Amino acid sequence: MQKITDIIAREAADSRGRPTLSVTVVAGEGTGTFDVPSGASTGSLEACELRDVGGGVSRAIDNVNSLIKREIVGMDLHDQSKIDAKIIALDGTVNKSKLGGNATIGVSIALAKAAAKAENIEPFEYLRQLASIKPSRKVPYLYLNYINGGKHAKSPIAFQEHMLVPDTESVTEALEMAKILEKSLYEIVAKKYGAEVAAEVGDEGGYVLPNGTYETPFELSEQAINESGFGGKCFIAADIAASSFFENGSYVMQGKSYSADELREIYVSLTKKFPILSIEDPFFEESFEDFAKLQKQTDVRIVGDDLTVTNKSLLTRAIGMGSIRSVIIKPNQIGTLSETLDTMHEARLRDVDCIVSHRSGETNDDFIADLAFAFGCFGLKTGSLRKPERVIKYKRLEKISLMGE
Ligand code: PGA
Ligand code: ZN
User: Fold this and answer.
1) Are 264 and 392 found together in one domain?
2) Which ligand 1 atom is nearest residue 360's CA?
3) Digit-coded pLDDT (tens) for 166-201
4) Closest-CA residue to 30 (of 63, 71, 79, 70)
């Protein structure tokens, strides 16, 4: 037994410059710190991110330094599930609104990192001690963000993220391809819109297009793939985040209203035109049936994010209704590591693939790369190569994927 001796939360800044928590768990030689990320297009059923009236996180910090610390200090560092259960009970709400999901996930992941450190093993190795989850792939696909829209950029393009996914099992090769694709897309965007537009960076590091239709990012992505010589070797993926343009029962893009059926037809035609691997959140977050209708009509994998919010019961519902073939995993959506692992375990039991994801407001923490690698997840979705807090995670994945080779 190794007793936890201290837990300290401090304020840090995320990639948007907003305050967030940096939480450290101390147990003798074992010290682990987790810097908590923050979403913008959040699902309404996500764990509550506790913020003060002015947007600060002092209440969440106080909850760690008083309430949580009082309960957890003295417990065994290796009792991850017991400690998470204690935090869940201490909170006592359905969405962690008392302590704050940002406070609880900070402690929960810092704890796992401290335990790995105490055992002198890597976080991904420690994660494998905590859960047994059926792998989807040897190494996750890299979901690299290239064009931002929706809530992540000031752009008329309604779809939130357009990603390129190199089709390889080598992270090194994927990153090499990503650099070439990046250069090619830069040239395409600069030529079409000018160098100033090409220099603009969305929250997750993608280009921000000043005009165009929903099809434009797909066209430019395909052009970049072809001009890089990667035709047939690179997929396109999209995160629609459709809740962000759902208004009074219909979907509003550039002043035009679309029904769910019309939007579904748009997706189907896009999948016929472009090499699309997956479409995330194609409809409003409560539209389990519309997801299912689309999934029935296409072989492209439909992905739940705002639909499922890393929550096991919502995932079970989505699977039961045939809504999705893949699920986004964001630990801060549910608020503890144990619940995250539980959801991932359930997904893989039912043959749904997991894509581990960053948030649009990120920190320099690289834990999610370990999480994606530990269980052979289908994908790691963590932005573009134009933002350092995103690159850190891809680099970590590359490093651990090469260990033992
Ligand atoms: P968020 O966006 O972090 O702003 O929620 C990421 C996503 O929707 O996948
Ligand atoms: Zn999403």
Assistant:
1) yes
2) 3
3) 999 999 999 999 999 999 999 999 999 999 999 999
4) 79
